[in-house]
Design goal:
By secondary structure, this protein is an alpha/beta fold. It has a single domain (about 1-185), classed as 3-Layer(aba) Sandwich (Rossmann fold). It is built from 9 helices and 5 strands. A 5-stranded parallel β-sheet has the order 2-3-1-4-5, sandwiched between helices. Helix 2 crosses helix 3 and helix 6 (about 120-130) packs across helix 7. The longest helix is centred in the last third of the chain and has 16 residues, at about 175-190. The structure holds adenosine monophosphate. Adenosine monophosphate binds next to helix 2 and helix 3.
């Protein structure tokens, strides 16, 4: 099974690249942000809870996020592999994911880290906000808080995966197809 974590700050292009990787390698796409947004749209309790954090640009608490992710994985009994997009975002989430997969005799194959400069990130998110309709893409102070959450809570995961020998950093600043080619190269090395 090919299990990929796509990792990077908000606006790095995780979602865009995840969709392309899913298509190429026939994986199941699990985006915690998308799942939260679907819950908000359908008005579930989980959605209401998640919204109170997302609107401020804060991370949703680990316990809730981990439980949701595990239940989504369990729904996919025929998956050839997964791409985890926007998860894990904290060390506790990464540890929980390892333990959960281990219980299924599975593991993360590799973590693809998209590297993009901070100024470019804010520019991209504000641009995306014009079309995405996402409340958390509209306001510069919320965007800045998301980047801050990334820097303090999520960036340390690079070391977590580096220690496991699974981290592959890829320049995320070029055009979409070029970045995708470089990501695919890293994936192919693992499966050839
Ligand atoms: P994204 O679509 O990945 O940019 O996520 C949008 C928002 O959803 C984030 O700013 C968080 O508030 C929340 N979120 C998504 N994934 C997670 C996660 N793994 N842990 C905590 N909060 C998350």
């Amino acid at each position: 099974m090919l299990n990929i974590v796509i990792f990077g700050p908000p606006g790095a292009g995780k979602g865009t690249q995840a969709v392309k990787l899913v298509e190429k390698y026939k994986l199941v796409h699990l985006s915690t942000g998308d799942i939260f947004r679907a819950n908000i749209k359908s008005g579930t309790e989980l959605g209401k809870l998640a919204k109170s954090y997302m609107d401020k640009g804060d991370l949703v608490p680990d316990e809730v996020t981990i439980r949701m992710l595990e239940s989504e994985v369990n729904k996919q009994s025929n998956a050839k592999g997964f791409i985890f997009d926007g998860f894990p975002r904290t060390t506790a989430q990464a540890q929980a994911l390892d333990k959960f997969l281990e219980g299924k005799k599975l593991s993360i194959t590799l973590t693809l880290a998209l590297e993009v400069e901070v100024e470019e990130l804010t520019r991209r998110i504000m641009l995306r906000g014009k079309d995405s309709g996402r409340a958390d893409d509209q306001d510069e102070s919320i965007v800045r808080n998301r980047v801050q959450e990334y820097n303090t809570k999520t960036a340390p995961l690079k070391d977590f995966y580096k220690k496991q020998g699974k981290l592959r950093s890829v320049d995320g600043s070029g055009n979409v197809d070029e970045i995708f080619k470089n990501l695919s190269k890293e994936v192919n090395k693992m499966i050839e």
